[in-house]
């Protein structure tokens, strides 16, 4: 396995009324290509903060996040976000003035996808996450929150980046679509060789990942999971 992303002695805290609240304390961990990771923990334990650091939406207060051995601050945070990582955060980065289809195609173009017929590929991906062709041709703004979430998932699934991070990607989806999304995420890791990091509250999603990282009081515990295929 090749290490794609590495947290090296990462600490993060917030200051409130001059008091420091530690969220992550001196965390070191590596993430490999071809693996599906879930991040779990109680509310407020720092899961979203963890993903924000992994996707260069924020930087550690101490320590470093390395991508292919290089500090992401050196790569440049916006370059990193545009080229190297696909982010599925609720309502993050869906371009509301474009149609769902244009959103997916644009992401494929930005990440230099070699796929020739981008339109058909994008439509197929949108269909797999439950967006019909008619909805795909609507402006994203006219879709519901859950549908916008699906568009951002289809976008992440279609682009070329090796790293995919998602915050509760199945949170507000119906059971069947949620299942399909988890299957796609599993597939992206095991077949397409991507490194997939997902925050979830759902134990059935954590169960089918390769490794679960549990956050608690600033520290992490890592569990290797049995290989279960989500059906
Ligand atoms: N900008 C901020 N300023 C101050 N405190 C913050 C800020 N953002 C988050 N926090 C605090 O940091 C802690 C960790 O937040 P985070 O959102 O990472 O947790 P989480 O595990 O994702 O929680 P949840 O499961 O509820 O989404 C929480 O106590 C939160 O209140």
Could you explain how this protein is built, in words?
With 231 residues, the chain is α/β, with parallel strands linked by helices. It is 35% helix and 29% strand. It has nine helices and ten strands. The chain has helices spanning 47-54, 72-75, 77-84, 100-110, 118-128, 133-136, 145-158, 175-190, 203-207; strands at 3-16, 19-32, 36-40, 62-67, 70-71, 85-88, 163-167, 195-199, 211-216, 219-224. A six-stranded mixed β-sheet has the order 6-7-8-3-9-10, sandwiched between helices. A four-stranded antiparallel β-sheet has the order 2-1-4-5. Helix 4 (100-110) packs across helix 5, helix 4 runs parallel beside helix 7 (145-158) and helix 5 packs across helix 7. The structure holds adenosine-5'-triphosphate.
SSE pattern: EEEHEEHHEHHHHEHEHEE
- Biggest sheet, strands in spatial order? 6-7-8-3-9-10
- If you compute it from the alpha carbons, what radius of gyration comes out, rounded to the nearest whole angstrom? 17 Å
The largest β sheet comes out as: 6 strands, mixed
Ligand list: adenosine-5'-triphosphate
Low-confidence stretches: none
Distance between the terminal alpha carbons, to the nearest Å?
25 Å
Rounded mean pLDDT score: 90
Strand share of the residues? 25-35%
Strands, total number? 10
Basic shape: globular
Helix content: 25-40%
Q: Would you tell me the structural class of the helices and strands? A: alpha/beta
So how many helices? 9
Outline of this structure?
With 231 residues, the chain is α/β, with parallel strands linked by helices. Helices cover 35% and strands 29% of the residues. A hairpin with a 2-residue loop joins strand 9 and strand 10.
